[in-house]
Amino acid sequence: STSDSSNSEQAWAVFKSPSRERDIFVEKEHIDVNGHVNNTYYQDFIFTALNGICSDKFLSHVQISYLHEAFEGDVLKLYGLFDDNEARIKALNGDNACFEAVVKFTEKNNG
Predict the structure, then answer these.
(1) Coil/strand/helix, residue 57
(2) Interior CA angle at 102 toward 64 and 2, to 5°?
(3) Residue 3, Cβ neighbours under 10 Å: how many?
(4) DSSP state of 54
(5) Alpha-carbon distance 86 to 103, whole Å?
(6) What is the pLDDT of residues 52-63, one digit of tens each?
(7) 20 to 30 Å CA-CA from 33: which of 8, 17, 26, 92?
(8) What pTM was estimated for this model as a whole?
(9) Tens-place pLDDT, residues 12-53
Protein backbone atom coordinates (compact mmCIF):
# COMPACT_ATOMS: atom_id res chain seq x y z
CA SER A 1 0.00 0.00 0.00
CA THR A 2 1.04 3.60 -0.39
CA SER A 3 0.41 4.35 3.29
CA ASP A 4 3.96 3.33 4.11
CA SER A 5 5.53 5.58 1.46
CA SER A 6 7.15 7.81 4.10
CA ASN A 7 9.42 4.91 5.06
CA SER A 8 10.01 3.66 1.51
CA GLU A 9 13.33 5.41 0.84
CA GLN A 10 14.70 4.15 4.14
CA ALA A 11 13.49 0.63 3.31
CA TRP A 12 15.14 0.71 -0.12
CA ALA A 13 18.38 1.98 1.40
CA VAL A 14 18.37 -0.90 3.89
CA PHE A 15 17.63 -3.43 1.17
CA LYS A 16 20.43 -2.39 -1.18
CA SER A 17 23.16 -4.96 -0.84
CA PRO A 18 25.30 -6.66 -3.48
CA SER A 19 24.03 -10.10 -2.45
CA ARG A 20 20.45 -9.15 -3.35
CA GLU A 21 20.81 -6.91 -6.36
CA ARG A 22 20.54 -8.20 -9.91
CA ASP A 23 21.96 -6.46 -12.95
CA ILE A 24 20.10 -6.29 -16.24
CA PHE A 25 22.14 -5.37 -19.30
CA VAL A 26 19.99 -3.57 -21.85
CA GLU A 27 20.65 -5.19 -25.20
CA LYS A 28 19.78 -4.25 -28.78
CA GLU A 29 16.86 -6.73 -28.78
CA HIS A 30 15.21 -4.78 -25.93
CA ILE A 31 15.08 -1.55 -27.93
CA ASP A 32 11.96 -0.31 -29.75
CA VAL A 33 11.59 2.04 -32.73
CA ASN A 34 11.85 5.04 -30.38
CA GLY A 35 15.37 4.01 -29.32
CA HIS A 36 14.60 2.97 -25.74
CA VAL A 37 13.54 -0.22 -23.97
CA ASN A 38 10.21 -1.53 -25.23
CA ASN A 39 7.69 -1.61 -22.36
CA THR A 40 7.08 -5.33 -22.88
CA TYR A 41 10.61 -6.12 -21.68
CA TYR A 42 10.16 -4.54 -18.26
CA GLN A 43 7.98 -7.49 -17.24
CA ASP A 44 10.80 -9.84 -18.28
CA PHE A 45 13.21 -7.82 -16.14
CA ILE A 46 10.84 -8.11 -13.17
CA PHE A 47 10.59 -11.88 -13.54
CA THR A 48 14.38 -12.07 -13.71
CA ALA A 49 14.47 -10.29 -10.36
CA LEU A 50 11.90 -12.73 -8.97
CA ASN A 51 13.71 -15.84 -10.22
CA GLY A 52 13.33 -18.51 -7.54
CA ILE A 53 11.36 -16.26 -5.20
CA CYS A 54 7.74 -17.13 -4.45
CA SER A 55 7.89 -20.09 -6.85
CA ASP A 56 5.32 -21.87 -4.68
CA LYS A 57 2.67 -19.19 -5.37
CA PHE A 58 0.49 -17.98 -8.23
CA LEU A 59 0.98 -14.53 -9.69
CA SER A 60 -2.18 -12.49 -9.12
CA HIS A 61 -1.23 -8.88 -9.97
CA VAL A 62 1.56 -6.85 -11.59
CA GLN A 63 1.69 -3.06 -11.59
CA ILE A 64 4.60 -1.28 -13.27
CA SER A 65 5.34 2.42 -12.93
CA TYR A 66 7.62 3.65 -15.70
CA LEU A 67 9.78 6.47 -14.35
CA HIS A 68 12.75 6.97 -16.68
CA GLU A 69 13.78 5.61 -20.08
CA ALA A 70 16.52 3.03 -20.50
CA PHE A 71 18.69 2.69 -23.61
CA GLU A 72 20.92 0.09 -25.25
CA GLY A 73 24.06 -0.39 -23.20
CA ASP A 74 22.51 0.76 -19.92
CA VAL A 75 22.88 -1.43 -16.85
CA LEU A 76 19.79 -1.55 -14.65
CA LYS A 77 20.31 -2.54 -11.03
CA LEU A 78 17.22 -4.30 -9.71
CA TYR A 79 16.40 -4.37 -6.03
CA GLY A 80 13.44 -5.92 -4.27
CA LEU A 81 11.52 -5.99 -1.05
CA PHE A 82 9.72 -9.27 -0.47
CA ASP A 83 7.16 -10.63 1.95
CA ASP A 84 4.84 -13.64 1.82
CA ASN A 85 2.38 -12.28 -0.74
CA GLU A 86 4.03 -9.26 -2.34
CA ALA A 87 7.24 -8.17 -4.01
CA ARG A 88 8.28 -4.61 -4.76
CA ILE A 89 10.93 -4.26 -7.43
CA LYS A 90 12.88 -1.10 -8.16
CA ALA A 91 15.28 -0.63 -11.07
CA LEU A 92 17.95 2.03 -11.00
CA ASN A 93 19.77 3.27 -14.08
CA GLY A 94 22.68 5.11 -12.54
CA ASP A 95 21.10 7.60 -10.15
CA ASN A 96 17.72 7.51 -11.89
CA ALA A 97 14.85 5.24 -10.93
CA CYS A 98 13.89 3.57 -14.21
CA PHE A 99 10.80 1.71 -13.00
CA GLU A 100 9.10 0.40 -9.90
CA ALA A 101 6.77 -2.57 -9.77
CA VAL A 102 4.43 -4.24 -7.32
CA VAL A 103 3.88 -7.96 -7.81
CA LYS A 104 1.25 -9.77 -5.76
CA PHE A 105 0.91 -13.50 -5.21
CA THR A 106 -1.73 -15.89 -3.95
CA GLU A 107 -1.25 -19.29 -2.39
CA LYS A 108 -1.38 -22.34 -4.63
CA ASN A 109 -4.26 -24.60 -3.71
CA ASN A 110 -2.84 -28.05 -3.20
CA GLY A 111 -6.24 -29.68 -3.28
Answers:
(1) strand
(2) 105
(3) 6
(4) S
(5) 6
(6) 666 778 889 999
(7) 92
(8) 0.76
(9) 444 444 445 788 999 999 999 999 999 999 999 988 877 766
